[in-house]
């Protein structure tokens, strides 16, 4: 039986200095062919573009696709590599039981990444994707994993967290994970309209005195440390 177009896949890897028009030109080149986009990922780091596209196509078109993509490389100033396979590849979106490991620290060193990756391998999990989710005031890096046992991975990574002084979370993928968010904000005059220390002062019968100190600090007459000490006293 002949291979169907969906079973024959091509992986396209494009790298180069980012500029407007690269992505549109790539897909305009693919448009004349009977191609299905199965997966796509793009990232730009320090103006360096890395774009990967997994396509389903007719095996008879593979050579022409590769030739047409090679023809646009020089004009775009990029490198394009193609890899074709007779066996359909499973997209990360189609995989079940994915785990998400998030690293959080003021600074994440290569040693930390090496230690985390070693534990992941030891626990028979595979890294599907790595990306940064925060950069200031702390750095957060997220790993998406397939395979591995959640509780065992969490226990093993807890040791790395303790040794390297960072926070590590392990969560199962799914819609519930996307429904949860952490919001950090100032309480005084932000989450609530009052100053908490003035509410406490009112209970102690010294609200007017403490409020006067707060107003003085807001005018810049006292720095934060001085005003805090004065209000608590």
- How many separate domains make up the residues? 3
Distance between the termini: 86 Å
Overall pLDDT: 85
List unreliable stretches of 5+ residues. 1-6
Description:
- By secondary structure, this protein is of the alpha+beta class.
- It folds into three domains: 84 residues, Alpha-Beta Plaits (2-Layer Sandwich); 84 residues, ACT domain (Alpha-Beta Plaits); 46 residues, no CATH class.
- 39% of the residues lie in helices and 30% in strands.
- The strands form two sheets. The chain has a four-stranded antiparallel β-sheet with strand order 2-3-1-4, covered by helices on one side. The protein has a four-stranded antiparallel β-sheet with strand order 6-7-5-8, covered by helices on one side.
- The N and C termini lie far apart (86 Å).
- The N terminus is likely disordered.
């Amino acid at each position: 039986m002949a291979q169907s177009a969906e079973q024959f896949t091509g992986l396209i890897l494009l790298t180069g200095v980012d500029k407007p028009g690269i992505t549109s030109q790539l897909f305009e080149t693919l448009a004349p062919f009977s191609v299905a986009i199965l997966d796509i990922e793009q990232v730009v780091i320090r103006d360096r573009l890395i774009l990967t596209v997994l396509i389903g196509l007719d095996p008879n078109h593979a050579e022409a696709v590769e030739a047409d993509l090679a023809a646009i490389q020089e004009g775009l100033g990029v490198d394009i590599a193609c890899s074709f396979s007779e066996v359909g590849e499973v997209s990360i979106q189609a995989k079940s039981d994915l785990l998400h490991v998030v690293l959080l620290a003021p600074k994440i060193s290569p040693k930390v990444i090496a230690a985390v990756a070693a534990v992941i391998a030891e626990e028979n999990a595979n890294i599907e994707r790595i990306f940064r989710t925060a950069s200031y005031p702390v750095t957060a890096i997220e790993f998406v994993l397939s395979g591995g046992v959640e509780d065992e991975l969490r226990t093993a990574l807890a040791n790395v967290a303790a040794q390297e002084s960072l926070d590590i979370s392990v969560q199962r993928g799914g819609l519930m994970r996307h429904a949860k968010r952490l919001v950090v904000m100032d309480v005084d005059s932000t989450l609530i309209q009052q100053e908490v220390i003035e509410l406490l002062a009112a209970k102690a019968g010294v609200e007017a005195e403490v409020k006067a100190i707060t107003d003085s600090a807001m005018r810049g007459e006292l720095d934060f440390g001085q005003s805090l000490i004065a209000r608590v006293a």
